[in-house]
Specification:
Low-confidence stretches: none
Radius of gyration: 17 Å
CATH superfamily of one domain: BH3703-like domains
Distance between the termini: 24 Å
CATH architecture of one domain: 2-Layer Sandwich
Number of helices: 4
Order of helices and strands: HEEEHEEHH
Shape: globular
Helix content: 25-40%
Largest sheet: 5 strands, antiparallel
Number of strands: 5
Length: 159
Amino acid sequence: MHTDNQPVALRQEKLVRALGQMLADFIPEGWERIRFEAHGTTAGFRYKIGYAVADGEMQLHQQSHRIPPEFRRMLADLRELMYRPDIGTWFDMELSIESGGDYIVRFERDRPPENPDNVPEFSDDIYAQDLKVYPRSAGNIPEWLAQKVYRAQSEGMVE
């Protein structure tokens, strides 16, 4: 857990800005807008990076697998920082950055993960493990997550 004395909101903003700067440095020059989407668990992250140039057409960054390990560590730190007892933490994050420096970030902790590119999903046992690390009260476990945990327990993948 974090022992930093800064308020959580300030630490969160610093992490998001640092992530945004790393993305901006990673994308080819001449971008107007960056769109970053991540889905994370304690087992890791799946993400996609798009960017628009002057003509406005969004392009998928083909080298997103080359993002430095520091970036993934910062995403994990952000999930941990945003954990709230009995409520949980986020699974999905969207970050949109404009070339002028403005950004919008959105976190989702309750809806099922989106999978528009048919990337293999995390297995049920990974979600069950995530719930152990970031526990939620029964009223804060969405149905889709409860089903994944139940399947993992039924199949003996977790205790």
